[in-house]
Specification:
heterodimer, A: 474 residues, alpha/beta, 23 helices, 51% helix, 10% strand, B: 212 residues, six-stranded parallel sheet, four-stranded mixed sheet, 25% helix, globular, binds iron/sulfur cluster
Chain lengths: 474, 212
């Protein structure tokens, strides 16, 4: 995965630092609370939310269980529509494919629309090393890129920056990348957005190559779907002559009709809107409309490892709505950076260790970055049982041994026994609390005790783990 | 190498799924629509939801449409407009704005950038989500036309272009055509989650619903 996060301290240490940063905490708190309240309203509007969620879960599960068939079907459809399909087993291959495609156009700059897959593979850094400049065009990504920073939220990557910081970044950095920020730029969001519009427009108008991800790929038709708000996606998908989309293999859905589920659940779960301002769909190339060359790079990069794990594979249902981040008490305190990967929050805690293994300290600590309160599962529009996967991954980490994981091993033994013997939960909870593994008032994990006990404790839901478990398991 | 990677990825997938149980056909117990099948109700809902996401919504008749289009262009000070192929010429019969027809020689991105407005029809509108869908059909043009100019005036025919819900919309749309679903003008909430209208797409969206 991306080199951006190499050298990250393990989760508890990074979280410890984040908790001390009061600006970051205030920004995060404001953002996550605002969006979670709005989401609840948007979801309540649909009387059939539970059925939509169940359908989304089943569609994705069925797709994953026949993933090879759907990918081959997708490949045929995209090819028939004038596109070219490339397969990348890992990040290095994907980066090489994209680099070669860009070089073949003779261009040395590209415009990019926010894509987690390209962040995951560290594409920008790779292109930079090859002499190709990649311009991020999503406002938040622009803030992150100009600030030489890392994204901290799936949907709002600059959620950790407030307006004053953004103004300072624009004023000092924009000129180095292109059009300068206006001299009298204030910190009003309207003015900041206008500065970004002007800065990026010159790049869009001259762009010859666009790079995107996709939210969905429809196997039966070969159609790709990008859901966005600002219009930078439309710019990148429409104005360049060559479009390269790098998409994880799990993003495929079988039919055009399946979009009727996800185009209802995704916007409401992510931005809390009935529908996001812009959704673009395209199938191969179209004469006289948009890019004349389209390349789809299908990315594995650890996804098949996750697929092989019968408990863990449900993480591949994720549609990256970020609802689980916004309700997570650990994320709210720790911030996105503590997770050490492009996938922060509860989904990151179960996805990252599966995509890249648990050999590094930060990845091994991720399954412990949760209190197992279950709020993430409740809001997930594809019903990923994140706590279940976390517990499963903890077992795996504990099983791999090593000095750093001795305590977890002890904790998990106790927890595993308790979960198998619900009748003795009380005794088990005492044991778990001694080894601080599953107690909902504390953040489990190496070194976690110090910071949870010395800082104000997260306001975890009142429901104890035992009740949650009962309600969700029986 | 390309062929190798393809075989490798597909091989890994098959290996990973050896133990996977066959999955049943997904249950679709959700609703087809959340709105009564009543034209007036659906139109009101479309109007309300479009306005809620800061589109300016107008209703008029076929006869009064040209005057309204002229008035809206005027109100926004639009002196030049991009005209997609197949747009009924009558719609622009009362405006004095200069017309750039995007026909044989296509407008370049830079030319579009100096064009003030674009007037289009649409493929479909979805009431429950306040969405208009463009698919490049007659009167809509290629995607860049409705993207670069700052004002987009979109005309929706109430008679046969409005559906209630997303599940009702998809079967009527052709996935082989490039589509743009538009729900209000472009927006961002990237700065402290304050919603700001107008980043890269048209900053103003006027939707004109033509009733009988
Ligand atoms: S795990 Fe679920 S809630 Fe979290 S981002 Fe993915 S789809 Fe959304």
């Amino acid at each position: 995965m991306s080199g951006t996060f190499i050298g990250m301290p393990a989760f508890p240490k990074a979280a410890h630092e984040a908790v001390r940063d009061t600006t970051l905490r205030a920004n995060l708190r404001h953002a996550t609370h605002t969006i979670r309240d709005k989401r609840a309203v948007a979801v309540a509007e649909l009387a059939d939310w539970a059925e939509l969620r169940e359908a989304g879960k089943q569609i994705k599960t069925e797709t994953l269980h026949s993933l090879d068939t759907y990918l081959v079907q997708l490949e045929e459809a995209v090819t028939a529509a004038g596109g070219t399909v490339h397969w990348a087993a890992d990040a290095a291959e994907a980066n090489q494919i994209v680099t070669d495609l860009v070089k073949a156009t003779g261009e040395s700059e590209v415009v990019k629309v926010k894509s987690m897959a390209t962040q995951e593979i560290g594409l920008n850094e790779h292109l930079e090393a090859e002499g190709i400049r990649a311009y991020e065009t999503d406002l938040a990504e622009l803030i992150v890129q100009l600030g030489e920073d890392r994204p901290s939220h799936i949907l709002v990557p600059a959620i950790h920056r407030n307006r004053g910081e953004i103004r300072d970044i624009f004023t000092s950095e924009m000129g180095k990348w292109g059009r300068e920020a206006p001299d009298d730029l204030t910190d009003s969001p309207v003015e900041l957005a206008e500065a970004a519009r002007l800065h990026l427009r010159e790049k869009f108008l001259r762009a010859k190559v666009g790079i995107s991800g996709a939210n969905f790929m429809v196997a039966e038709t070969g159609t790709l779907v990008v859901v966005e708000s600002e219009g930078n996606g439309r710019m990148c998908l429409t104005l360049p002559e060559t479009l390269i989309s790098v998409v994880g293999i799990e993003k495929v859905v079988p039919t055009w009709r399946d979009l009727e589920v996800f185009l209802q659940t995704l916007p409401r779960s992510s931005t809390a809107e009935r529908m996001n301002p812009y959704t673009s769909t395209w199938t191969g190339t179209t004469d006289g409309d948009g890019p004349s060359a389209f390349h789809l790079v299908l990315l594995d990069n650890g996804r098949t490892d996750a697929l092989a794990d019968e408990v863990g594979r449900q993480a591949l249902r994720c549609i990256r709505c970020s609802a689980c981040l916004n309700v997570c008490p650990v994320y709210e305190r720790a911030g996105g950076h503590a997770y050490g990967s492009v996938y922060p929050g509860p989904i990151g805690a179960i996805l990252t260790p599966q995509l890249r293994g648990t050999t590094s300290e930060v990845d091994a600590s991720l399954p412990y970055a949760s209190s197992l309160c279950g709020a993430c599962y409740d809001v997930c529009p594809v019903a990923i049982d994140i706590p279940e996967v976390l517990v499963h991954l903890r077992e795996k980490v504990a099983g791999q041994g090593g000095k750093g994981h001795r305590l977890e091993k002890v904790a998990m033994k106790a927890a595993g026994w308790v979960l198998d013997h619900p009748g003795v939960l009380a005794a088990g909870e005492r044991a778990a609390s001694k080894t601080r593994a599953l107690h909902p008032r504390k953040l489990p994990g190496p070194g976690a005790r110090q910071w949870t006990e010395s800082r104000d404790l997260p306001e975890l839901p009142a429901e104890p783990f035992r009740d949650w478990w009962k309600k969700n398991r029986t | 190498m390309k062929q190798n990677s393809r075989a490798r990825v597909l091989g890994r997938i098959r290996q990973a799924l050896l133990d996977a149980p066959p999955s049943p056909e997904p249950a679709r117990d959700y609703l087809t629509a959340h709105t009564a099948d009543d034209e007036a109700v659906i139109l009101d809902l479309l109007h309300e939801n479009l306005a809620d996401y800061r589109a300016n919504v107008h209703r008029t008749t076929e006869t009064d449409l040209p005057a309204l289009v002229a008035k809206l262009l005027d109100r926004h000070g639009a002196q030049t407009i991009a005209v997609p192929p197949g747009l009924p010429i009558a719609w622009l019969s009362e405006t004095t704005a200069r017309q750039h027809h995007d026909a044989d020689s296509l407008l370049t991105p830079h030319e579009l950038d100096t064009t003030h407005a674009v007037v289009t029809s649409c493929a479909l509108a979805i009431a429950e989500t306040g969405t208009i869908v463009l698919d490049g059909g007659p009167g809509q043009g290629r995607r860049a036309l409705t993207l670069v100019p700052d004002l987009h005036i979109c005309v929706v025919r109430a008679k046969d272009q409005v559906v209630g819900s997303v599940p009702q919309a998809l079967p009527r749309l052709d996935p082989t055509r490039p589509q743009t679903w538009i729900s209000g003008p472009s927006a961002t909430s990237d700065i402290e989650l304050d919603r700001v209208e107008g980043v890269h797409g048209p900053r103003r969206l006027d939707v004109v619903i033509v009733t009988r």
